[in-house]
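BUG: 3D viewer hangs when loading the predicted structure for this chain

Environment: internal workstation, default settings.
Expected: structure renders.
Actual: progress bar stalls at 90%.

Input used:
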Amino acid sequence: MTHVDINRLEDALRLSIENEIKAFKSYTLFAKKAEEEGYILVARVFRAIAQSEKLHASYFWRLLYDREMEDSDLEKIYNSVTVNVGSTIENLKACINNEGLESEEIYPKFADLALESNNPGAYMFFKQTSLVEKSHREVFLFLLKTIEEKSNLNDLNIYLCPQCGYISLGNRPHKCPICNEPGKNFILF
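Structure tokens produced before the viewer hung:
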């Protein structure tokens, strides 16, 4: 996602849907590349975060269209976006950059736009998604450092919050630090 000048909440939601689906597609393809290069943990994390991005797209979809996103809706956008797949290290660096833009610039701006538009639901979700994307960035930074230091963490557990998309590495959390979802509901990858 690049810096954009959006003035309408509907446009912010449309762009968010497209970019979350692009992230879903990117991370799915990046997982395959990581696996090919022997980075099993990185591939597992990419798959978990891909599901998180798909979850975000579905929430933004519901906010914009007041209905659930169907498989055909997802496929239409999925097939329309292009993804450049580099090496795993290049892919991680791109993810770090994109997640940083989303968490620090784009989603906070869209949250303000939602507030100005008197849409507290969109405001709350943009704020929450900004926090989740920040946590994704931290996970990608950890993975890049792990690769650069040639550490082996392939047996590390990866947990996905089914409510907001937060990713936890290591132990299952007692609850999600972002949305308070009980840890027992987290999905193990």
